[in-house]
Amino acid sequence: MTVTEKTRPAATEPVASVRNRILDVAQELFSELGYSAASTRAIAQAAGVNLAQLHYHFGAKRDLFKAAYLRGAVQVTEARSKALAEARTAHAEGPIPLEVLVRSFVTPFMLAGNTPAGRATMRMHARLHTEPDDISKEVLSTVYDETTLAYVTEFQKVLPHISHETLCWRLYFMMGAYRYTLLRTGRLEAMSGGACDSGDFDRAVAEIVPFLCAGLSAP
Amino acid sequence: MTVTEKTRPAATEPVASVRNRILDVAQELFSELGYSAASTRAIAQAAGVNLAQLHYHFGAKRDLFKAAYLRGAVQVTEARSKALAEARTAHAEGPIPLEVLVRSFVTPFMLAGNTPAGRATMRMHARLHTEPDDISKEVLSTVYDETTLAYVTEFQKVLPHISHETLCWRLYFMMGAYRYTLLRTGRLEAMSGGACDSGDFDRAVAEIVPFLCAGLSAP
DNA sequence: GTCTATATGGGGATAGAC
DNA sequence: GTCTATCCCCATATAGAC
């Protein structure tokens, strides 16, 4: 304590927390407003820092977006591919049962919605395809490509009688269905006259799994 | 020709075409870039008019967006509800067969993709939920609410053994699946290694109909 | 109805002191 | 690492001449 070295002790901790605060807010605002409508000024202000700090830590807006997106997505994607790996070893002899497979794919993102940070991750994910082209393409191939291909392989194993092309289409529809659910558009409430709640993600999982299993294995 | 009246003869035609040109371009740019990223300047320039003209004809950006969106959506929605009405009269005695119902719901938007203007309509529709909240809510309830409720009723008739809530969830998943398809995200191509083409909307319809029928009527 | 010019504010990004 | 001040551009919207 007496000898204060240049900047090392207790200087790294707060820095990390500043970065985290910025990322939290960035996730929140990007997920709510989208890339273009969420301004760096608004993010800085909500995080309690100033613009210069934001640029010091993350560089350009693009890069901040990528960092914010990836922080959430990497986490969830790891959960997903871990779930796949476990299912793989649990059914070493044959194919993974369809329901298990669907559930392992859908659950990590859908149940993320039960925490506030997870909700932001979810929404950023769901709306990623409507962000500026170059950003979304870059980010997507960074995180998803490998895992997705592994899933295609596994699905083909449980559904060997379905042609590869048809299978791909169906998996594409699956992605659409669950991503739309993550968005919480309010259409479910409008349609059901308030009987259903699109924020009830446990229910959403319970409903979507049989729907997808049936759709994927349709004749 | 000799007597030139104030502004009436042949003055209404070009005006309409200016408005149409603006709407065409607005649809195109909004559908490609989204509300925030598509600037009124860019729209005016691409339409070959200046900013003041754009405001003269459509008022604020919000209103231009609504006009552009509604022009396409109203058309497609009318096709959809006409298809429903026809199916209704063709099966006066009992419920409309599931496949007919699904097809009538999905086809108007999906086959719109075969024309350039329709493609823009499609994409605006698909990404509407990621536009600023107030705009999307307002527009959605203007065009879709009635038709959607009519569909819920019809689906319940063909699928009487499914609870109302579960049915709503499934219809919600259906919306997600087909809207995502309209977006053309490139994920289909990535997943299939280029074997499938997400721009082939006839194929998309052929694939999605059995998928949805199976999913909706899952046990 | 159409144009030019401009008002007014917000955006991303950086310089340079501390 | 943090701050203030500022550059410079682009945004939406309107005024007012023609």
TrEMBL record, chains A, B:
Superkingdom to which the source organism belongs: Bacteria
Keyword Iron-sulfur tagged: no
Limits of the HTH tetR-type domain: 16-76
Keywords, alphabetical: DNA-binding, Transcription, Transcription regulation
Binding region for DNA: 39-58
Pfam families named in the record: TetR_C_30, TetR_N
GO terms assigned for molecular function: DNA-binding transcription factor activity; transcription cis-regulatory region binding
PANTHER family assigned: HTH-TYPE TRANSCRIPTIONAL REGULATOR BETI (PTHR30055:SF234), HTH-TYPE TRANSCRIPTIONAL REGULATOR RUTR (PTHR30055)
This protein's name: TetR family transcriptional regulator
